């Protein structure tokens, strides 16, 4: 009788430990996108953002620019690439220049990068949106906030510097120091 209880106790312990480990590993990149509110500095960094966008899109006449900031070492970047593909098909008729840029390039220009993947949307040299592509642990295209902003379904007064959303993200090393 004691061996049966011991067996069930060991089995239940194994199930609980395995479940906890799976939960931890699956959610290690899920959290608040910008806990230190570094995106709030981007309004002051707008001249540097415009210079960077102009340099990267020098051969385009588009007044709207999407800067995609990806880190190849971040597992969440694969989900952002799905968003980029979807955006390319959804927004073919809209004049929108899309530029993939590294964290290092932005930081060299003096622009804060709290986490990746980060998307920055500029229109007519004004900062419209900066933050994650989508919310939720899976950051699926169904939870995209960017699509609503681009299609002008979600309008806010001024810039939407989206620090508070919980999403799949990799915090930048400089934010944790």
Walkthrough of the structure:
The chain is α/β, with parallel strands linked by helices. The protein has two domains: 29 residues; 143 residues, Glutaredoxin. It is 34% helix and 20% strand. The strands form three sheets. Strands 3-2-5-6-7 form a five-stranded mixed sheet. It has a two-stranded antiparallel ribbon with strand order 1-8. Strands 4-9 form a two-stranded antiparallel ribbon. Helix 3 links the parallel strand 2 and strand 3. The mean pLDDT is 80.
Q: Class of the largest domain in CATH? A: Alpha Beta
Task: Using the alpha-carbon principal axes, give the shape.
Answer: elongated
Number of discrete domains: 2
User: Please, what is the CATH homologous superfamily of the largest domain?
Assistant: Glutaredoxin
Which value, in Å, is the CA radius of gyration?
Answer: 20 Å
Tell me the span between the first and last alpha carbons: 54 Å
- Helix count equals 5
Sequence of secondary-structure elements: HEHEHEHEEEHEEE
Please tally the β strands and state the result. 9
- Main beta-sheet annotation: 5 strands, mixed
CATH architecture of the largest domain: 3-Layer(aba) Sandwich
The share of residues in helices is: 25-40%
């Amino acid at each position: 009788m004691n061996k049966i209880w011991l067996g069930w106790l060991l089995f239940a312990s194994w199930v609980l430990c395995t479940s906890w480990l799976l939960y931890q590993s699956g959610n290690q990149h899920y959290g608040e996108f910008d806990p230190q509110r570094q995106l709030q500095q981007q309004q002051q960094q707008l001249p540097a953002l415009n210079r960077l966008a102009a340099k990267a899109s020098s051969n385009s006449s588009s007044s709207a620019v999407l800067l995609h900031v990806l880190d190849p070492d971040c597992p969440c970047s694969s989900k952002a690439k799905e968003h980029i593909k979807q955006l390319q098909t959804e927004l073919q008729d809209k004049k929108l220049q899309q530029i993939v840029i590294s964290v290092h390039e932005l930081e060299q220009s003096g622009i804060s990068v709290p986490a990746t993947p980060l998307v920055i949307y500029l229109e007519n040299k004004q900062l419209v949106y900066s933050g994650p592509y989508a919310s939720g642990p899976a950051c699926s295209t169904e939870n995209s906030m960017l699509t609503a902003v681009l299609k002008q379904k979600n309008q806010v007064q001024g810039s939407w510097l989206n620090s508070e959303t919980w999403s799949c993200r990799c915090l930048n090393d400089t934010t944790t120091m």
